[in-house]
Amino acid sequence: MPEPLLRIEGLSKRYGGSLAVDALSFSIQPGECLGVIGPNGAGKTTTIRMCLGLTGPDAGTIEAFGLPIPARVREAKRRIGVVTQFDSLDPDFTCTENLRVYGRYFGMRAAAIDARIPELLEFAALTAKAGARPGELSGGMRRRLSLARALVNDPDLLLLDEPTTGLDPQARHVMWERLGNLLQQGKAILLTTHFMDEAERLCDRLIVLDHGRKIAEGTPRGLIAEHLESDVVEVYGDGAAEVARERAHAAQRVETSGDTVFFYLRDARALLEALGPRHDLRTLHRPANLEDLFLKLTGRQIREDA
What we know:
Layout: E1 6-15, E2 18-28, E3 33-37, H1 44-51, E4 59-64, E5 67-69, H2 73-77, E6 80-83, H3 95-105, H4 110-123, H5 139-150, E7 157-161, H6 169-184, E8 188-192, H7 196-202, E9 205-210, E10 213-218, H8 220-227, E11 231-236, H9 240-246, E12 253-257, E13 260-265, H10 269-275, E14 282-287, H11 290-298
Parallel strand pairs: 3-8, 3-9, 6-7, 7-8
Antiparallel strand pairs: 1-2, 1-4, 4-5, 9-10, 11-13, 11-14, 12-13
Helix pairs in contact: 3-4, 8-11
């Protein structure tokens, strides 16, 4: 096994009386995408801030490329690319100028930056928008420009904090394609996301955080198999609550959310047969997915931002 590009051991951070991050440990190998999922306030963004030396940990260690963070964070950042939750593009600069100025932050020579700009614009599918300013771009274009800017120093490790938030499905799929290309090039990605389909598509491994603590870790499909029944039957309609009472014995687990009843079970045939004559109900039979995992492990209650 190669040495991990990022290694975290026993990382903790406290704000006032609450632990934002609680004894967190993980590592990322070259060419691997590690996803971090969890409710608002679970500690995802705080973890990334500590990895970048922007917030000091109260306990634990961080190493990027074998360098201790934050003591040698400036050296480590030369090999790290970052896309934050919110765009920090300069609105007064064109796409080309945003890339050029950002490259100078890394001490790159003007000739080296200018040589990379065409390939970065092509990677982001923004060649035709080279002279446009961020305000003239769609949300998806701005996110792709942010990703291109994060690649200006040709980093080995990318830290992406909810990079597709606010994008429409087409723009998200384009971003997924671009991130997949980076993984094929051997770059490593630490990805936080609230999109479970994104996590399942991109991530080799997942960490589930809740109240700052790691509560599960594994491959997406492995976590689903470990924690969930294989089948889910969703039942909607005026009689759904009655069905939940009458048919609770037919499933390993039954949950109600609003006007929907979720039956979690290993064999759905008997339940579907029993519900077939009920024309007052609508049913959806599907395999268990990461959203079911997320809700089982962290609950259905809405969390406010920490």
